[in-house]
Design goal:
The complex is a heterodimer.
Chain A: E1 4-14, E2 18-28, E3 32-36, H1 43-51, E4 58-63, E5 66-67, E6 78-81, H2 93-103, H3 108-121, H4 137-149, E7 155-159, H5 167-184, E8 187-192, H6 195-201, E9 204-209, E10 212-217, H7 219-224, H8 229-234, E11 239-247, E12 250-253, E13 256-259, E14 269-275, E15 281-283, E16 290-299, E17 304-309, E18 314-319, E19 328-332, E20 339-342
Parallel strand pairs in A: 3-8, 3-9, 6-7, 7-8
Antiparallel strand pairs in A: 1-2, 1-4, 4-5, 9-10, 11-12, 11-14, 12-13, 14-20, 15-19, 16-17, 16-19, 17-18
Helix pairs in contact in A: 2-3, 2-4, 3-4
Chain B: H1 3-31, H2 48-53, H3 56-89, H4 92-103, H5 110-121, H6 126-133, H7 145-170, H8 173-181, H9 186-215, H10 218-224, H11 231-242, H12 245-267
Classes of the chains: A alpha+beta, B mainly alpha.
Amino acid sequence: MGNKIIELKNISKDYDVRVLNKINLYVNENEFLTLLGPSGCGKTTTLRILGGFEFPTEGDLFFEGKNINNVPPHKRQINTVFQKYALFPHLNIYENIAFGLRIKKINDATIKEEVKKMLKLVNLEGFETRNIDSLSGGQQQRIAIARALINKPKVLLLDEPLGALDLKLRKEMQLELKHMQREVGITFVYVTHDQEEALTMSDTVVVMNNGEIQQIGTPVDIYNEPENAFVADFIGESNIIDGIMNEDYLVTFLGRTFKCVDYGFSRNENIHVVLRPEDIVMVPENEGYLKGTVTSTIFKGVHYEMIVNVGTFDILVQSTYQSEVGDRVGLKFTPEDIHIMSKAVWNE
Amino acid sequence: MNKKQKFFAFPYVLWMFIFIVLPIVLVFLYSITTKEVNNIKTINFTLNNYKLFFDPLYIGVTIRSINLALVSTIFCLVLGYPIAYIISKIHSKHRNTVLLLFILPMWMNMLLRTYAWMTILGNNGIINNFLNMLGLPSLRLLYNNSAIIIGMVYNFLPFMVLPIYTALSKMDQHLVEASHDLGADNRTTFLKVILPLSLPGVISGIIMVFMPAVSSFVIPRLLGGNRSLYIGTLIENLFLVTGDWNFGSAVAIMMMLIILVSMSILNRFDVDKEGGGSSLW
């Protein structure tokens, strides 16, 4: 890691409206970078600009230090795995994978060897003569990856490649993709709206919303230190509560004042407080900082998810112990669990 | 199919029987009987009508007709593919308008459209008037094979364009992007992806142009004059002028066979049965 392989400088894209606004981003060599955001946030457009299928309205795109704004897709050392795979229906699996090498006029013997290697990498040995239609979604996905990787691109772009797969297969493929990326040692730029997927696979996560980057960081940073309420809300479930920062290390919300670990806000600034549901501990009513009534409880497998009404606010709590609807409970958390975020950054 | 569905299908079966099966059977019956007065009691069967068809004169007519239809079909394909491709590339806002403009002439009577070509190509037609104005001698444009081919291409071009357009516009644009992504320039992408995937549309188009072209009689009659016979004009003559319904029927049946055989040969090339414009068939 270390060398920047792709760099976006002030990239904007306008259709009828602005879909990307001044994106600044760089991707390191051998990095697994994920663009994460809700649909319509501009992540796919960013990916398409990298692939060369869209051209930025403003800004510059660099590949290994060279400006590639006007380089067409077939001249970029970047390959794409498309959302719906886009495998060629008139070609069999062998010819689909061989497509890129055939265009480079590589000799048949080499192609045969390379295709075999690729099929081994994606665990589909012996599928050469099969038809595309005879494959399951997951298998088609692997072929699409093999078809891209055989060209030995420097960067592989993946546009929500696991979106059409069922949960179990998706989890398997997440691990497999990560494994493949390490094995072939190339840069992956991955687009998804699934936060869990992003956290599982990425070295770096870029959270986007409304055509702008909200936060760039490692999965741990993004999860633990969201920069604004949008990121906090999007990455995992959160309670986002209006509050006032009285002074450094002191915050008031839901009618009480708490110690916290954040500082650097103006006096009495209106802020968002983020409490992760898994950080809140349920205790007997008289021991809690906040008191309330359980209004709903849902079994989620690993834990119960409960909603506790504390008067003006419904707080989401996750716990392995179940409380019945109607129970009076207390809620407890430590100063480290209180995340303070400036309101200014998040305009929705 | 359950009983109720069968019941509702009945009118269509009846319709198909009366208007499709029965006429073919009747034509076939005419083709294997003699011209002598036939009634239910005394039908005289014969194969002479078919024998006559293999007379060099009529074989010549058949070959000439097929030739002409083939040339027209090739012209339609060469002209029609780029047109269909361009229309499919037009921004979706304007695409339907362009398509409509293209189909609009089809709403006018074919006879009228063919007459229009007579006034364009005729000895005192628009082109020759223009040439005379420039002091050039008149050209003999009407009543030859070129005139027939012009008429056929003009009349049947939309039948080539529409199925190809359908196949092209149905094609997943991501396939084109994938091809570019894998290193193919525009030309290679066209040859390796777009063309093979639009093949079903091309085959539909060829069928839809070749069939009417081989049997057309209006266009050869109006633009080709009376100098040479084609299958279409031959059948017309036999039914309306000579009154030889039996031989006419035999020629009609032979033409059906020719078309059937050529279609089945073409369908062998249509690998992807479900895709594109082949759904028209």
